Amino acid sequence: MDENRITGAAKELGGKVQGKVGDAIGDRETKGKGKVTELKGSTENLVGQAKDAVRDVADQANDLASEAIKKGRERP
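Predicted structure:
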């Protein structure tokens, strides 16, 4: 799992909490800052997911290439 997914999820959760606190105490600035942090965390999480997906595709391509080479060597 990519580090961006972990830190992004943590920021997203922290932003949600900050937003709820701001909402509860009637502080629009705190609520707004929480929303911004939540969105930044969400974006970072998505970047991490994309990195993981690219890594998975690269691993699959490597596996397929290795298998093709192996089969090619086995042919007379």
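Summary: The CA atoms of residues 35 and 58 lie 35 Å apart.
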